[in-house]
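Final report, closing paragraph on structural work. Over the funding period we assembled a curated collection of sequence-structure pairs, and we close with a single example.
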Amino acid sequence: MENSFVAFDVETATNLRSSICEIGIACVRNMEVVETKSWLIQPPGNKYLPFNTYIHGITPDDTKDKPFFPEVWKEVCKYLQNKIVVCHYSAFDMGALRATLDLYQIEYPTFDIMCTIRPSKKTICGLPNYTLDSVYRNLFGIEMENHHRAGDDAVACAKILLECIKRNNIQSRDEIEQVFQLKIGHLSLGFYKNQYSNTPKDYSKRVKIKASDIVGDPDKNNPDSYFFGKSVCFTGAMSFSVRKNLQQYIANIGGTPVDAVTKNTDVLVVGQQDFRVVGETGMSSKQRKALDLLNKGQQIEILSEADFLAYAGDFETM
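Its predicted structure, as stored:
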């Protein structure tokens, strides 16, 4: 295995990916965590959504006197440049980083990208979900501290990858890709490709169909799944699969995929929105409807795509 890598985590203030309010890193050398650091960052306008604050606990008061991203990035970039950068669900963290770099017109750094979800699935099979705290608990038998704070999440991510490497007796980068059936991604000026599965998939039959037309496979029903028996709607573009596949997954495990948010919807999964469509709020009509139902006391849960992937557990994505 490479002698060093950097675990990386971000928290965001709103549903805009460019609203980074905290960055955390954990530097690994010679397969040991040797340095950890985190930075609070003032997001654009120092604006927060209550839902985001509920998740990570960071408020406008915490960041009102903190520097903006470009100032912090000068220091953070030095840790990442030409390294392997590891995240727990890299599609989210890399999406947020790229969106924020684009917002401030900052040149992309150069580094390779790894995600710990696939190694976690290959190392501990059959978990009901693969959230960071769930994987950490099952690997080490203890609860992680301060989940959803960037510094602590980065440390947990680093320890998870180290443990996966240890349990699979991996000695090299090539073995990481072979054992975990993945291809390490890369970011540089003018280029981005996230980590992906090296198992071929056939996307030649992509057809737009209604959620109500999707029939699940009863043999794949999973009463232990987080989404079993739940009505699940998707909005926005997902980084890890096409919507038809996601809806089929929900139907197979015993949930109900739906195309619209109603009073009967249990979960809304929010992907990246097209701002030419949703406008300055960054929210689709489905998300606005879900928030309205929440404010009226309806029990509907809004998940990010990262949360969905972690809770899905057995959904192959990368």
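The mean pLDDT is 89. The longest helix spans residues 150-167. We thank the funder for supporting this effort.
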